[in-house]
Amino acid sequence: MEPRINLMTNEIGVKIAKRIANVGLVIQQSSLPTSTQELVALRASQINGCGLCVDMHTKEAAAAGETAVRLNLVAAWRESTVFTEAERAALALTEEGTRLADAHHGVSDETWAQVRKHYDDDQIAALVSLVAMINAANRLNVILRNPGGIYEPGMFTSMSS
Fold first, then answer.
1. Tens-place pLDDT, residues 10-68
2. Could you tell me which residue ranges the Carboxymuconolactone decarboxylase-like domain spans (predicted)?
3. Distance from C-alpha of 116 to C-alpha of 124, rounded to nearest angstrom
4. Helix, strand, or coil here: 99?
């Protein structure tokens, strides 16, 4: 599969990518645990069918020490015992926030209460922003047909500036 356009060779595309990377850097530097960030990004990317982002967040999580068992079970987190209650709350928020068109009520009060139970306001700001940003990145990459399989951990680190 060939990408439809390379945003990194387009003046507007590069500007947009840098801004997205800068938002990602703010989220990455927040107190939201890195493992939770990668699990959330991976789950949204699975739902949206974004090969590049599934590839990226699986490899980044593994490079950060995430286990293969947990990475392999993200898609079935509800039927798994390897995630903490806090991670489960974040994954529920991710699914409900990603499937807005499917769940016309958006994020449920029950899910929001679980998120509030496990995360402080700064972490929630990072979590909600992460769900929004990974969905945006997924949509860019799916529309452009950017394939998974070539990502190396840290590959886009230099994007933010």
1. 999 999 989 999 999 999 999 999 999 999 999 999 999 999 999 999 999 999 999 99
2. 26-96
3. 8
4. coil
Per the domain annotation, does 64 fall within a domain?
yes
Residue 130 domain-assigned? Answer: yes
User: Residue 148: phi, psi to the nearest 5?
Assistant: -85, 165
How many independent structural domains does the chain possess? Answer: 1
Give, for 135, the enclosing helix (H) or strand (E). helix 121-144
Q: Is residue 152 one of the residues assigned to a domain?
A: no
Distance, CA of 51 to CA of 112 (rounded, Å): 29
- Residue that is written with structure tokens 């990377």 in the block: 21
CATH number assigned to the domain comprising residue 22: 1.20.1290.10
Give the separation between CA 102 and CA 97, rounded to whole angstroms. 10
| DSSP for 62-81, written as a single string | HHTT--HHHHHHGGGGGG-S
Task: Please check whether residue 89 is in contact with residue 120, taking contact to mean a CB–CB distance below 8 angstroms.
Answer: no
Task: Establish if 100 belongs to a structural domain.
Answer: yes
Domain extent for 110: 13-147
Where does residue 134 rank: exposed (0-12), middle (13-18), buried (19+ CB within 10 A)? Answer: buried
**pTM value > 0.85:** yes
- DSSP state for residue 42 in the 8-state scheme: H
Q: Are 39 and 72 a contacting pair, CB within 8 Å? A: no
